[in-house]
């Protein structure tokens, strides 16, 4: 989106998209590392260090191939998918979970309790409305 306003054929118009692609390629292994560290401890691996290494490498390659396949197949629907994920996850992470945790852990009273309930209900409303909007705008 940033490069749309740049003059077509200019140095900046070519350099900024190319830089964005390089940044994406370089940062993807760091993002995927978190995924690998999440599921790998839960799986049973071979006792042999060499076999374990190859099993992990195959699992990592399978996850990356799956991710690329989903992106390739659903690339034209990416905006809709991001709207759906944003509606469900962002409202939950920003509004619902913090207020629920504050209610459970801190056990506020009075105005603080009322504010947590208002934030919680607002988060649920935002989640529902943004999810409905994401499905309504699905192309």
Summary of the model, kept short:
The protein is mostly helical. The chain has four helices and no strands.
Describe the protein in words:
- It is a single chain.
- The relative contact order is 0.07.
- The two termini are about 20 Å apart.
- Helix content is about 80%, strand content about 0%.
- The longest helix has 29 residues, at about 10-40.
- By secondary structure, it is an all-alpha fold.
How does the overall form come out from the CA principal axes? extended
Give the % helix. over 70%
Order of helices and strands: HHHH
Q: What Rg is obtained from the alpha carbons, in whole angstroms?
A: 22 Å
**Structural class, please?**
mainly alpha
**Contiguous runs where pLDDT drops below 50 for at least 5 residues:** none
State the major sheet: none
Average the pLDDT over all residues and give the rounded result: 87
Counting DSSP H or I runs of 4 or more residues, the number of helices is 4
CA-CA gap between termini: 20 Å
Strand content: under 5%
Count the strands?
0
Main traits of this protein?
mainly alpha; 139 residues; single chain
List the helices and strands and how they pair.
Elements: H1 11-39, H2 49-74, H3 78-105, H4 111-136
Helix pairs in contact: 3-4
């Amino acid at each position: 989106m940033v490069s749309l306003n740049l003059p077509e054929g200019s140095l900046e118009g070519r350099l900024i998209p190319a830089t964005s692609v390089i940044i994406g390629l370089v940062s993807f292994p760091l993002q995927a590392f978190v995924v690998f560290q999440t599921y790998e401890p839960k799986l049973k691996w071979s006792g042999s260090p060499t076999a374990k290494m190859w099993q992990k490498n195959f699992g990592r390659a399978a996850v990356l191939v799956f991710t690329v396949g989903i992106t390739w197949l659903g690339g034209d629907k990416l905006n809709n998918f991001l709207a759906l994920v944003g509606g469900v996850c962002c409202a939950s992470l920003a509004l619902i979970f913090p207020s629920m945790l504050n209610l459970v852990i801190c056990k506020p009273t009075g105005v603080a309790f009322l504010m947590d309930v208002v934030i919680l209900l607002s988060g649920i409303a935002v989640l529902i409305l943004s999810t409905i909007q994401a499905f309504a705008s699905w192309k």
